[in-house]
C-alpha cells in the first residue's frame, strides 16, 4: 500500500511533529530519517515554507521531492519583511538589489515559464510590483522597462 504525502515545511527546520509526523506516523518509513533528509534538502530555504512530497513504498523506502517556495515567499525572505503593501504602487515595503532579484530568479527558474535568467527576473519583478517592493530604488514597473531595454544584461544574461 504505497502512498504519497504532500506538506509545507519550514526549510531546514522540519520536525517529527505536525504537519509531517501525523502524516508519516502510520506509514512504514522511519520518520526521523525522512525528517533529516528533508532538512538536508531544504536547508537553502532556511525557514521559508517549502512544498515537499514524500512517496513511500510498503518496504519502508521513500523518495523526497522538494519543490520551490512561492515567488512572493522568496521575495519576503530575501528582503526581510512579513507582508506586502496594501497599496503596492504608493506604499513600498522593501527594496531589492538586482543581485537579489537574480538570486530569486535562479532559485525559482525551474517553476517559471521563463527560458532564461533575464526573463525569470522579469517574472520576479512582476511579483515585486504587486507586493510593493522596489528594485534598486525604483518602481518595479519602471525597473522592468530598463531590463527590457537591456540595461541589466551584464548581470542577468549568462
Strand content: 15-25%
Output the strand order for the largest sheet: 1-2-3
What's the total number of strands? 5
Contiguous helical run count: 7
Give me the Rg, rounded: 19 Å
The parts where pLDDT drops under 50 for at least 5 residues are none
The CATH class name of the largest domain reads: Mainly Alpha
Q: How many domains make up the 3D coordinates?
A: 2
CATH topology of the largest domain: Arc Repressor Mutant, subunit A
Order of helices and strands: EHHEEHEHHEHH
Largest sheet geometry: 3 strands, antiparallel
- Measured as a percent range, the helix fraction is 40-55%
The chain-level structural class is alpha+beta
Kindly report the oligomeric state of this protein: single chain
Mean pLDDT across every amino acid position: 90
Distance between the termini: 46 Å
| The CATH superfamily title of the largest domain | Ribosomal protein L11/L12, C-terminal domain
Do you know the CATH architecture of the largest domain? Orthogonal Bundle
Report on this model:
With 158 residues, this protein is an alpha+beta fold. The protein folds into two domains: 3-66, 2-Layer Sandwich (Ribosomal protein L11, N-terminal domain), CATH 3.30.1550.10; 71-156, Ribosomal protein L11/L12, C-terminal domain (Arc Repressor Mutant, subunit A, Orthogonal Bundle). The protein has seven helices and five strands. The protein has a three-stranded antiparallel sheet with strand order 1-2-3. It has a two-stranded parallel ribbon with strand order 4-5. A hairpin with a 5-residue loop joins strand 2 (49-56) and strand 3 (62-66). Helix 3 (71-79) runs antiparallel to helix 4. The protein is elongated, with a radius of gyration of 19 Å. The relative contact order is 0.12. The mean pLDDT is 90.
